[in-house]
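Hi there,

I know you've been waiting on this one. I reran it after we fixed the sequence typo, so this is the corrected version. Both the input and the resulting structure follow.
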Amino acid sequence: MDPTDKPKGLSPHYSLYQREVFKNGGTTGQLPSFSVHPDELSESTKKKLNDRGYFYANSNAGLGWTDRANREAFYRWRIIPRMLVDTTTRDLTTTIFGHRIPAPILFAPIGINKLYAPAGELIPATIAGELGLPYCLSTAASQSIEDVAAANDTAAQNKNESNSVYSYCGAPKSNNSSSPRFFQLYMGHDDEITLSLMKRAWKSGFDVLMLTVDTWQLGWRPTDINIANYAFYYPSSVGNELGKSDPVFMRKHGEELENDSGKWIDSSVWHGKAHTWEKIPWLIKEASDICSPCGRPFVLKGIQSAADARRALEIGCEGIVVTNHAGRQVDGAVGSLEVLPEIVQAVGDRMTIIFDSGIRTGSDIFKAIALGAHVVEVGRLWVWGMAHEGEAGCRHVMKSLLADLDITMTVAGYASMEKDVRGNKDALRFNPYGVPPGKDDHAKL
């Protein structure tokens, strides 16, 4: 954490963000306005949002057992620190779909961001651009594809040079071309609208198409049921902006929106009968044709079994997201980290493996990468930060997470994410006993 000792490594010295916070507090009395401790951050978010906003991002399926299973799975894997290792210079960089990124973190697709701040998806797209990290836009977004792309491009091209994370570092700055941009697709049953969305995403510089396959029907979410929490059906609410900006959808259904605000989500995004594996080759081909001649990586989001991972590989998918939709779809399902090792064993490095569901800390990221994931998706954390202070809150949470990961690597004795951590199960030990302490238990410790 010595700012005068700045060896030129491949990664920014993210750990210096902790020093910056300490120094601001000690010299000027300036303290963070909210806690980035995940449990405390989740609780304080309740005070910042109304029930509809809070539960849209935080409701779980059924009793919430799958959400808890995600955290229990992390608890059972323990990091084995190594001593007397020179970690003065860390390398957190990794490669995803041919792009070199500064850390193995992807902004997960979350819809209706205007529930958390007026600028909506423009905020995480901006912070992702600043940090050089990949951003993924949801089909259920509350901003247009084009506006989000522009915000991400502008931030990537005009990084604030006074940002301490970068000014302390001798590493080269990322440029826009070094970080891929993902478009997450909810595929309805109108192929013309699906193709329109894909064409718009490609023209706006979204490099990767990510199809979500675990949400043809919303899971049973009692905390949303209690308050009829489905923003798309409220005329004065948000959530239909991406549809309203689509020329094909508006040509077909624009007039109906006046009397049916849920037309976009019902007819074009999800609901109705599920698609099957037989549909996927068509979508892969169409995506490839749209992006001809260079093509575009195709990713399935929602994989929870080795069998499905192998099937995805066989039909031509270049990547998968190992996720249970953060515990929001199937109550009582396996934790995502539980199944990650067997999925990695099934497909190995023949496809890109993105891990999602339950990431809260730098240690969580370390564990997922050690178990074989190439990158992780982070979702609720940046939503919570954005709910507190908009752009500043989102930035604070993500810089804190990067510092946490960097410091974990430093003090645990692992200098390189790719050489020392990824796929290195010797860096971990599995403990099948116990569960994470609950909030009441923390007070007793």
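Quick highlight: DSSP finds 19 helices and twelve strands in the chain.

Best,
R. S.
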